[in-house]
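This part of the workshop introduces the protein records we will be handling. Backbone structure tokens are a discrete shorthand for how the chain folds in space. Once this layout is familiar, the rest of the handout is easier to follow. The record below serves as our worked example for the rest of this section.
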Amino acid sequence: MKLEVVSEIKNTGIMAIVRVKTKERAKEIAQACLDGGVNVLEISYTLPNAGEIIELLKEEFKETMVIGAGTVLDSETARLAIMSGAQFIIAPNFKKEVAFICNRYQIPYAPGCTTMTEMIEALEYGASYVKVFPVASHFGPSFIKTIKTPIPHMPLLSSGGVNIDNAEEWFNTGVECLGVGSLLTKGSYEEIKKNAASLVLSRDNIRKKD
């Protein structure tokens, strides 16, 4: 299952970062993303109902979506998220104890790292992806290329700085997945669906060249 989730994240290449207060809005966002071609959602634990949202979406969409937990700062939260059905764990920081929990349950872990030392250490502790955060939004796509040049096999999930106009530039860096917030969570169903479809088109345009 772990390998399947890791593969699906890479295949989709786009992850919606969701912070939502109501179950109804969570379902609307998820459906719009799915209809636009994005089937990977990160439910942020910045809100206390994250576990409930994960359970709801897993029940509602079953195998059609990959649902994970974000902003997981400690092992206690990681286990709660996994027990709620989270298929992957993402954090703004790297913590060994969270890596241990994820490895125990065979759940992909993507910790936030800034330096090359942090990134390599995260891989040594079994991270499936390294989340380039918070520097990705500050330095832009060129930072991904800087990492990929000496370590081309580094599996990167970039978070921040993505918009419709620069999405192809981001995908062209070789990044495995782009975390996207407001484009895929704000506005109406139709707006979110349209944005998701535009991001998917950008992804496909770059992948066709490869």
Remarks:
- The two ends are 28 Å apart (CA to CA).
- The longest strand covers residues 14-18.
